[in-house]
Amino acid sequence: MAIGIIWGEIWNEAIWNTAIWSQAVGDDTTPDQFTFADRFNVATSAEITSAPVTIAGIDAASAITVTGGTYSINGGAFTADPGTVVNGDSVRARHTSSGSASTATNTAVTIGGVSDTFTSTTAGAANPSETGIISIISRRNRLLN
Fold first, then answer.
1. Whole-prediction pTM value?
2. First CA to last CA across the chain, in angstroms?
3. For the segment 114-142, what is each residue's pLDDT rounded down to a tens digit?
């Protein structure tokens, strides 16, 4: 009787371990949070490209989409079309900056449900007091000459 119990326990343990270890682990397509470095004091109406971010924390291809601009994977062509990335891919965002001074432009990149927004802000308008001083000095010099 003891042999039957021991054999039954070994057999059940083997089946249990096989059942546990053979379960397929789901593909992880949700990356770690990534963050684009924002850009400040950029020129107006200029093409602005982010520094690259490296995608980590996934073990299967993950969907990538963009709103308000384009993206590039591993230095490839920029596109606004949906695509896929894999672990270790390098992604950049790009957009055209605002035509107005001191104005932000945003491009949102979403990968596997995780998003970040690349923002570029144009430089401010020329300082009116500096323009005024230059103008006054210039007029004074013309009067003296």
1. 0.71
2. 121
3. 999 999 999 997 655 444 555 555 555 55
Q: How far apart are CA 100 and CA 61, in angstroms?
A: 39
Spatial separation of the C-alpha atoms in residues 27 and 41, rounded to whole Å = 41
User: What is the identity of the amino acid at 116?
Assistant: D
Task: Tell me the CA distances in angstroms from 71 to 39, 93, 109, 134, one per residue in order.
Answer: 16, 4, 8, 43
Region of residue 138 (phi > 0: left; psi between -120 and 50: alpha; otherwise: beta)? alpha
One-letter amino acid at 10 equals I
What the block records as the tokens of 114 is 């995780």
Q: How far is CA 96 from CA 48, 78, 100, in A?
A: 6, 13, 12
Top-ranked range on mean pLDDT: pick from 4-8, 95-99, 128-132, 137-141: 95-99
DSSP state of 122: E
Q: Which two tokens stand for residue 62?
A: 């993950």
